[in-house]
User: What shape does this take?
Amino acid sequence: MALHKADVAIVGGGLHGSSTAVHLARAGVSAVVIEKNHVGRHASGVNAGGVRSLRRHEAEIPLALAALELWHRIEDLVDNDCGFECHGQIAVAEDEADAAGMKARLARLRSLGYTHERWIDAHELFERLPALARHCVGGLIAERDGAALPFRTTLAFMQKAVALGQRFLEGTRALQVRRDGLAWRVLLSSGDTVSAPVLVNCAGAWADQLCAQVGEPVPLEPIAPMMLVTLRMPRFVEPVVISFGRPLSLKQTADGTVLIGGGRRARVDRNAEATLLDWRELSASVQTVHDLFPMMRGAVINRGWAGIEARMPDDIPVLGPSAVAPGLFHQFGFSAHGFALGPIVGRITADLVVRGRTALPIAAMSVQRFAAPSAGEPL
Amino acid sequence: MSGADTLAQCCDLAVIGAGPAGMAAAVEASRRGLATVLFDEQPAAGGQIYRGIAATPVQRREVLGADYWHGASLVDALVASGAHHALRTTVWSVTRREEGGFELGISCNGAARLVSAAQVIVATGALERPFPIPGWTLPGVLTAGAAQILLKTSGLVPGPGTVIAGSGPLLYLLMAQFAAAGMPPATVLDTTLAGRWREALPHAFDFVRSPYWRKGLALLRQARSSNNTIIRGVESLQVLGEAKAEGVRYRAGGVTRELPCELVLLHQGVVPNLNLANAIGCEQRWDEVQKCFAPVVDEWGGSSVPGVWIAGDGAGIVGARAAEAHGRLAALQAALGAGRIDLAARDVAAAPHRAERARWQRGRTFLDALYAPAAQYRIPAGDTVVCRCEEVVAQQVIDTVRLGCTGPNQMKSFLRCGMGPCQGRLCGLTVSELIAQERGLGPGEIGYYRLRFPIKPITLAELASLPRTEASEQAVVRLPH
Assistant: This one.
């Protein structure tokens, strides 16, 4: 029955927990990361690997742009290139309705001062995507976007954190958290206890359980976005391609396999930590791939899977200090697009812990947006 | 006998694999009134052991032997039963349905379909254990089983100067079959460990009372009387050559020799083909005697997933005759589950099959102990290829364990082994045993790959051809901008 003491206890050893551990270490703050399986077991290790600012929710754009700066120098942060490759991301307009929607989006982004997305016409589209079906009319491109390898990235962050002196307790679950005077005490399934003045909730699809324990319930929905991977194919596409009007993401990895994602969902049982693929939905995904890339007809699908992730009703994460408990910070609910943000969100949380503030705008992601209005407060 | 389009949308029982266990199960289930569909990838029933039985060009019965021709009776019974036999049909997924029962993803003639079954019997049989020695991936190196398929389906025999290496009863069966088919003299390098007799001896009494005693004696007699050169106690073996197999180097009796050859047949036993059971989520265990993973099943073949039964070699190597009995017992249990018979009727019907099973399993422990493959042939070192699909060698696996990788599923993410088209069939056991050895633990504690559907690769076009439903049409509806 060991007692582990640190400045910060982090529940969840995925990319977000590991990233926070790295940034805290750089600030001279000690942390213990509690992980119920092994690092990278769930969403962090098995997602599509997109590093994307393209088509982000407005609230996420500043974070995505700041994250990209880190990704382009990721070796400086974690001594590993994480398999990051930058060939841009392109959202494809299949008809004039898509094109109009894209141009409206661009106008809105420009009005907010963003220039990271650009319209490309059919000519440039087919130059960049020669294998694309010719019915497409144009697209949106974010040239600094790319993709990386999820498991390698998550592991690299964990190994850097360990090299900087942080501790990871794997194979043990946080059963109970409670405030005890000035410290949080986390009781583990191994029988050990972690004691720290600060607690960070990086528990992914299980984060609402911790929230419930501290009396700050959130409407989290566990989801399991599905992925397919093919056997190796001759190189035919460099940028990551996402569709605009229907769910799709497609990328060809460095070893030639093609990853097909897009967010269609499997059935998920988060207690059993199991997912059941929905083949009708996957069939619709590959229909989309086939419509956009006719030469993919003969591609051979070798494996399908789905990671377990947390979705919030407004599709943006919960980030920032708890509204009810002192010394508790939330960092979850990335709604199937948290991988790219991993490197920067860890720094945001570390800044909040160390300095009490962050330079990046996170008000829209506050946990308070889910609080029930109490009597006397304006609605 | 037809394609996927004529299949009913649902059935009471899906049997996957038309080898002896699957055929026997389908016949029994059909007798009990279950609407049964038997699926198999091959153009005809028979599985591996009775492969090609309906159409083999090898018509002289003494070549393939009486055991092989017993399979014809199973095929005849299948044809006469009411079971629907879906040929050339691959089952690539089996998923529990929320409303109960299972949904099977199947492919036939380049088109995929989803069909439902209330219960499933997995009878996917066995596959040959990997034989990872230096040079095993060179052109000109085949498994003995592959050579046997060539004999059964096309009447081909190996040419002169072939080397046949390994251990196990199938090796001797193969030698007898090839000799009867007119194969020129070959060299047999027997890798059965000297001294295995001591492990096997406690089981010898059962063995001499078993059906395998006379068969075994007959095979050994045939082997000794053939023109083949048999070298026993081969302690190390490698295939030589640059772009193809050119020879073998082996050590026996303390002496190392080289032998030129162009064709090398390797075999060291068979292990359960458990990819489908694994992907369904059936629990597995490590069998320390047979040195392989096998699904956990009860005496009826019931797996850890309710409604999924596993029969035949796919549940643990028992041989073809015992597999039939397993298939019938699983079918009876499925009939009970479907309410077609009651407990009393089940037990009465099961009695003869239990007896058959006991009869044909007696003596196998002796064979298992005698022919347990030696560690040096299961757990390679250095730059011997472990994962053929991704070209991962043994030293890479060992180095990755030293970096902190604790098991095969993490290993997949580190090195990609197990992520190629064979889906772990050729590397899974080797990787688990390598990690176990390096970590000083048993393979049972290390575990095996967690496999995913599709358990056979399918093309994008096949998956895209799934019939549309209203729900999936709506899912493709445009997203709001």
Notes: The mean pLDDT of chain A is 95. Residues 96-111 of chain A form the longest helix (16 residues). Chain A has ten helices and 24 strands.
